[in-house]
From TrEMBL:
It holds the Pfam family Pkinase. It is an enzyme of class 2 (transferase). Keywords: Kinase, Metal-binding, Transferase, Zinc, Zinc-finger. The gene is hhp1. This is non-specific serine/threonine protein kinase. It comes from the Eukaryota. It comes from Trichinella pseudospiralis (Parasitic roundworm).
Length: 352
């Protein structure tokens, strides 16, 4: 339900975007900066705020955010980005082109490398925490969010000292994507983030993972059943039907020792198409959103926000007389996503 209310006399909350174990996320407006932002709010429960720690991680990673508290809540505001990878997969009817997944893979691995080089591991990577933002007319860049579970794997930022190997720790992460070591309660390190990314990429490319439909009740049961399947399933079987880059990625990640320095360039290089790459000519038989492209430049659209942003690019560049002419030229989009047809007047208002 859409609503408007003011929070902390600074933020206008427009609508709730999502909620989880630790709080609620709203889309709103920062009255000071006049920017649209995402605002995470958690109840103060007499224990250290996860949002406070997350703010410190963002600051260390040079991210822009604002943290504050009152008598009842802690909150964190940050840049509002585009859709997450789960949204993208759903918009494509769970049938992403493998070549597109490979493009995302390169960016995701480089983003993980950036975090690791600054001494942190994420520990809760999943499609919902991987967001896209429109960089220019036809390209998008990946951003990672939700660092509430992140920890330092490097004890000192001035002198390298890896955290110690430990066992019998609480399970941390999302069962569907977490590494085998995380399932077993072993201290996580860089290898675990990367193995998790491998499961995410396979999920995006195939639309599903083998252990999603397990009929178990307790968390402990589910944890051990999923772990058992991951241990038994060889990478080539998990990634059957995909380019060899996917299974080679998983094999490499599973070979890493606890404190190993990953070869990030090798990993993202697997997904960069070359003359001899198995990726070069690998395509799915069909794209269920075939024809859902901009007639002016050929960009493939998958969500409403992208259409709105993309329309503004063409109008400002003078490629289209106005938003109405852009929509007329791309009328096939409106038949594929009826919600866009219903919101045509709203789209026009955005740019008038």
């Amino acid at each position: 339900m859409n609503f408007e209310r003011t929070f902390q006399n600074r933020f206008k909350l427009n609508y709730m975007m999502g909620k989880g174990t630790f709080g609620v996320v709203y889309v709103g407006m920062d009255k000071i900066t006049k920017e649209e932002v995402a605002i995470k709010i958690e109840k103060r429960m007499g224990k250290p705020s996860m949002l406070c720690f997350e703010k410190k991680v963002y600051k260390f990673l040079s991210g822009s955010s604002h943290f504050g508290t009152d008598d009842f809540n802690s909150y964190l505001s940050m840049e509002l980005l585009g859709p997450n990878m789960e949204d993208v997969l759903e918009a494509k009817n769970r049938d992403l082109l493998v070549t597109d997944v490979c493009l995302y893979a390169v960016q995701i691995i480089k983003a993980i490398q950036f975090i690791h080089e600054r001494g942190f591991i994420h520990r809760d990577l999943k499609p919902e925490n991987i967001l896209l933002r429109q960089r220019d007319l036809s390209t998008h860049e990946v951003s990672l969010i939700d660092f509430g579970c992140a920890v330092r794997y490097r004890v000192s930022k001035y002198k390298f000292s890896h955290i110690a190997y430990r066992e019998k720790l609480p399970v941390m992460g999302t069962l569907r994507y977490m590494s085998i070591s995380a399932h077993l309660g072993i201290q996580q390190s860089r290898r675990d983030d990367l193995q998790t990314v491998g499961y995410i990429l396979t999920y995006l490319a195939k639309g599903k993972l083998p252990w999603q439909d397990m009929q178990v009740t307790s968390f402990a049961e589910q944890n051990m059943e999923v772990a058992s399947m991951k241990i038994r399933m060889k990478p080539q079987h998990l990634c059957q039907g995909l380019p060899s880059a996917f299974s080679n990625y998983m094999k490499y990640c599973r070979s890493l020792e606890f404190a190993s320095e990953p070869d990030y360039s090798y990993l993202y290089g697997l997904f960069e198409p070359t003359e001899n790459s198995s990726l070069r000519n690998h395509k799915k038989l069909h794209d269920k959103y075939g024809g859902f492209v901009c007639h002016l430049c050929g960009t493939d659209f998958i969500w409403q926000q992208s259409l709105v942003c993309h329309a503004s690019f063409h109008v400002r560049a003078g490629d289209a007389l106005n938003i109405q002419s852009f929509l007329d030229d791309n009328s096939s989009m409106l038949t594929i996503l009826p919600s866009l047809e219903e919101n045509t007047d709203q789209l026009l208002q955005v740019f008038t």
